[in-house]
């Protein structure tokens, strides 16, 4: 029995070491499975909850063009949730169970979606900064060790890069506009910058999950390394269109060839991930309501599928 387990563990570790993906039917340690279910389901919840702050502006988009683009983007986010829930299901958890964990407050979703979208410039800031941060994280996750998660990431990254450009285009246009529009863009930048940096999670030294995640190649780069990458590329994009970064400690470090920056407000981060951000209650209430009201749609879809199978088998 133990010899069998040793053999299975050995096969698993060899695959990880040789960068061969682990697939749903492969043997895997329980802790690896649990770790993936936690991360992938949280990621899926983030995609779906992330539709809410953007959805707030569909009816108020400033032109038909921007409304169409925003609608398409939000629909993409729903699709990303779908790929990710499907990837998590291959690990033996049902979608109902994942949603139950979300509604019970046992599963998290990204802290960023607990902030409100007050003006149209916030839609630009989300696309540019939030999707921009998501891309940096997700490009790295394309090489994650679990096959279905890695493949979902490849598709998601392609769409996220359009989203990032959509957001940057909004910010660029506003910075080329009137004084009021410029002020609106800068205000959105000021409010979204720090929460975007929090998306990468706590510092590596305070991140309980990073050790196993790196050992099993679930994460390929640590929270701090990815955050630094995002800062280095985004500061230049901001300066190019005349936006300033709300961090008076931000300074180019020639030796490191990257930016030094001020400290993140970790008390705020902890408050937000523990349910006390500006919009946590509103987001969850809305999700639960939509889920309950959508029950008949799920039932109808299942009934249709069963009937179709029955007719095919006749
Ligand atoms: N928000 O040990 P750590 C998107 C939690 S983009 C909330 O470092 P890990 C979208 C963490 O879960 C966003 N919770 O954890 C974009 C853990 O708590 P639990 C989605 C956070 O997993 C635009 C604890 O803090 N992207 O969807 O190694 C439009 C300790 O952290 C956060 C992803 O989810 C946070 N920011 O690293 C629409 C990417 N940070 O679980 C949609 C995939 C940390 O032990 N996820 N926590 O109770 C990851 O890469 C990693 O899970 C994280 C955290 C980098 C987020």
Description of the structure:
This protein is an all-alpha fold. Helices cover about 70% and strands about 0% of the residues. The protein has 13 helices and 2 strands; from the N terminus they run H-H-H-H-H-H-H-H-H-H-E-E-H-H-H. The protein has helices at about 1-15, 30-50, 50-55, 65-90, 95-105, 120-140, 145-175, 180-200, 210-215, 225-240, 265-275, 280-295, 295-314, and strands at about 250-255, 260. Strand 1 (about 250-255) and strand 2 (about 260) form a beta hairpin. Helix 6 (about 120-140) packs antiparallel against helix 7, helix 6 (about 120-140) runs parallel beside helix 8 and helix 6 crosses helix 10 (about 225-240). The chain starts with a helix and ends with a helix. The model has no long low-confidence stretch (mean pLDDT about 95).
Give the termini distance in whole angstroms.
46 Å
Mean pLDDT score: 97
Strand content: under 5%
Helix content: 55-70%
Which blocks of ≥5 consecutive residues have pLDDT under 50?
A: none
What pattern of helices and strands is seen along the backbone? Answer: HHHHHHHHHHEEHHH
Task: Give the class from helix and strand content and strand pairing.
Answer: mainly alpha
Largest sheet data: 2 strands, antiparallel
- Number of DSSP strand runs: 2
Overall outline: globular
Strands in their spatial order, largest beta sheet? 1-2
Count of DSSP-assigned helices: 13
Oligomer: single chain
Give the names of the bound compounds: benzoyl coenzyme A
Computed CA radius of gyration, to the nearest angstrom? 21 Å
